[in-house]
Amino acid sequence: MTIANRKERQKEELRGKILEAAKALFIERGFEETSIRNIAEKIEYSPTTIYLYFKDKDDIFYALHQEGFVLLNQYLRALLNVTDPFERLKAICKAYIAFALENREFYDLMFISRSPMNALTKDKDDEKWEEGNKAFGALIGTVTECIHHGYFAGMDPEVLSFTCWSMVHGICSLEIRGRCTVISEANQENLTGKAGAVIIEILERMHRNLIK
Amino acid sequence: MTIANRKERQKEELRGKILEAAKALFIERGFEETSIRNIAEKIEYSPTTIYLYFKDKDDIFYALHQEGFVLLNQYLRALLNVTDPFERLKAICKAYIAFALENREFYDLMFISRSPMNALTKDKDDEKWEEGNKAFGALIGTVTECIHHGYFAGMDPEVLSFTCWSMVHGICSLEIRGRCTVISEANQENLTGKAGAVIIEILERMHRNLIK
DNA sequence: CTAATTAACTTAACACCGTTAAGTAAAACT
DNA sequence: AGTTTTACTTAACGGTGTTAAGTTAATTAG
Q: Checking CA distances to B53, which of A39, A66, B66, B113 falls within 20 to 30 Å?
């Protein structure tokens, strides 16, 4: 029994080391430059060993993708004590943008890259979205509360949540994938911050409309 | 003289054939599955010939990226006769989403994929953005007109334009990169349409706020 | 008209990549 | 002590982008 335990622990350890090496390479070099062979070299095992722990390359990046969602939820958890739902919604938008800019490679993996999604479609497993659902659930919950407080009257909470997500995602993904070069140099400085502020301004103007 | 002309014309023809083959493969199989060797096989030339016409793979996809902007501008040109700037802004948003959904691979290349941007950073050439600037310029022009008509008072035209772009880009890129699975099945049907409608509803509610 | 040059293209190769089949050696179990 | 299982490796397959060197035909120059 104890031998089996030790073995299991050791397997888990190596799995962890693979993931750790993959993460390190991936964060410093990006997705394209992180190969199975690179990872193998870093942990001093043969490339094929990795296939004993992960189905394929997409599977490794799916695991990192999950780690990213845990990290995102850490950013969001701090905002649960903001009582006013509208203030919380604005805080979520800001925190989301901060997460994206402070963890660019993770953000790319979670919301832009195709790789981790391939791993999902191969074996449809709903519970694998646990962390993702938690993050999006926080948004839906907040938006729903906003609606109950009279904001965004008549809108569908889920669709509006998706739209809010889209708005901030748009900003972050254009920044991360380097599409901001069409903007004048003066406005390129902290463009995501400025655009984020505009989003919040837009939400607030809708609010002002309501209370008048 | 006439011989040199013919030669030049022939060179241009082959360049066109490479691009045509690349486009066909890329549209039906996507970026990852379109290789230099595939393209070469399709036009019945050796792979190395392609390097006589394009610097590298990114350079080919940059050329297609440019074609995409021409196509997008066709979608936008039709809207120039919408006289009311606010109506035109809403129409631009709708047309942009339609373009994205009807030309998914092009959209991916133009606004998501890293490949064509690599070609740009290698040799910074401002005039290469001509078509891109035309598209974004149409947006800026419309937003500026809106502001002159009293909409979005106090906002920076360029930053607001970028934010509008971000909003619709967010919707399109989440759809194209398959991130809409967290939404309930009921709302997944025509989600981009619903979210696009919410964006327009948001813009309109800001407007209503103003005129009251 | 012939020799030298240039243009257009190909062959062969390099150094990678993800992935798999087959083999090995040690550990665990019977 | 012999058998089976586990953990891992070697070697290979078929693919990728890219480059150096070679070939052949067309053009130009003497």
A: B113
- Measured between alpha carbons, how far is B90 from A157 in angstroms, rounded to an integer? 22
Distance of residue A25 Cα from the nearest chain B Cα, in angstroms: 19
pLDDT of B68 > 80? The answer is yes
CA A30 from centre of chain:
16
pLDDT in tens, B5-20: 666 777 889 999 999 9
Mean pLDDT of chain A: 93
Interface test with B, best of A166, A180, A194 (most B CBs within 10 A): A166
The confidence band for B121, taking pLDDT boundaries of 50, 70 and 90, is confident
The percentage of chain A sitting over the pLDDT mark of 90, rounded to a whole number, equals 84
Which strand (E) or helix (H) includes residue B56? none
CA to C1' distance (Å), from A47 to D11: 13
Does residue A82 contact residue A95 with C-beta atoms inside 8 Å?
A: no
Structural contact between residues A64 and A19, judged by C-beta atoms closer than 8 angstroms: yes
Nearest CA in chain B to A132: B182
User: What pTM did the predictor assign?
Assistant: 0.94
Q: Around Cβ B154, how many Cβ atoms within 10 Å?
A: 6
User: CA(A110)–C1'(D6) in Å?
Assistant: 35
Question: Which two structure tokens, joined as six digits, stand for A20?
Answer: 């750790």
B125: which 2 tokens?
Answer: 């050439």
pLDDT per residue as tens digits for the range A32-88: 999 999 999 999 999 999 999 999 999 999 999 999 999 999 999 999 999 999 999
CA-closest candidate to residue A123, choices A53, A70, A67, A58: A58
The Cα A53–Cα B183 span in angstroms is 31
Nearest-Cα distance to chain A for B204, in Å, is 9
What is the number of other CB atoms lying within 10 angstroms of the CB of residue B69?
19
Provide φ and ψ at B166, rounded to 5°: -55, -45
Helix axes A130-148, A85-102, angle to 10 degrees: 150
Residue A51 dihedral angles phi and psi, to the nearest 5°: -75, -10
Is A177–B117 a contact, with Cβ atoms under 8 angstroms apart?
yes
